[in-house]
Amino acid sequence: MAVLTARPLNPAAIQCACFVILWIGLLCVNVGINGSGDLGEKLGANQRDFDYFHLALQWPGTFCRRTRHCCPTNGCCRGSNAPAEFTIHGLWPDYNDGSWPSCCTGKKFEEKEISTLLGDLNKYWPSLSCGSPSNCHGGKGLFWEHEWEKHGTCSSSVTGAEYNYFVTALKVYFKYNVTEVLREAGYVASNSEKYPLGGIVTAIQNAFHATPELKCSGDAVEELYLCFYKNFEPRDCATKSNKKSCPRYVSLPEYSSLKMANDGNEVSESALDSDI
Questions:
Q1: What is the pLDDT of residue 245?
Q2: What's the pTM?
Q3: Which of 1, 58, 67, 75 could, after both became Cys, cross-link 126 (CB 3.0–4.6 A)?
Q4: Given 147, 162, 222, 254, the catalytic residue
Q5: Does the record's keyword annotation contain Transmembrane (predicted)?
């Protein structure tokens, strides 16, 4: 009876077989990702979770005084309905080290998801320009699209899906009404008054028991940031940028709203005071 003996495997053959198996495995993973179109979401699932929230607010008087052209999407061009209080820029998840996540999933913005919120969004979260900001998929779109895809997708572990992200931001904005706090402290829109930066910061500290952060354009307040733990309890923001960006006395400029031409597209001259 013949005895069969196994031939020893060639080391080169073993290496080649392993390479083929690895190549096939990587090909399958790649096909699976491309087929689902959801690479961003898979990456996002493994991304380091954020530490806290920034609620970024814009002062319309500072942004809108630079406007020289009108379009239907520009909140600066609404005449008597133009915003005259802090409006939302975005609700941003951030890391304690000063960095932040962005474009965390492959989910695209769907305007129909927020259709019932459009009234409040147009009033309290308007775009203050005619430009179309970039989205996370190589294109351009609505201001809200940019904010959801870049920042909202990274906060979904707390805020949930698109609709809930916008609802959450609006609720926090209404609860921590910076414009009202400053108005009660005597800090109101004016093209002639200058206010102590320390007084503005103190008024917000007294109201919310947390330190805000401010950004200025010249001496005009451009943005104001409130910071929150992930349960939306107020916390201090970093204050070092206050000294870099804002002088000791700052303004909250008013502006004369631009008006749309009859065709809704014509260039319109600004009636803003550029010497503020």
A1: 85
A2: 0.78
A3: 75
A4: 147
A5: yes
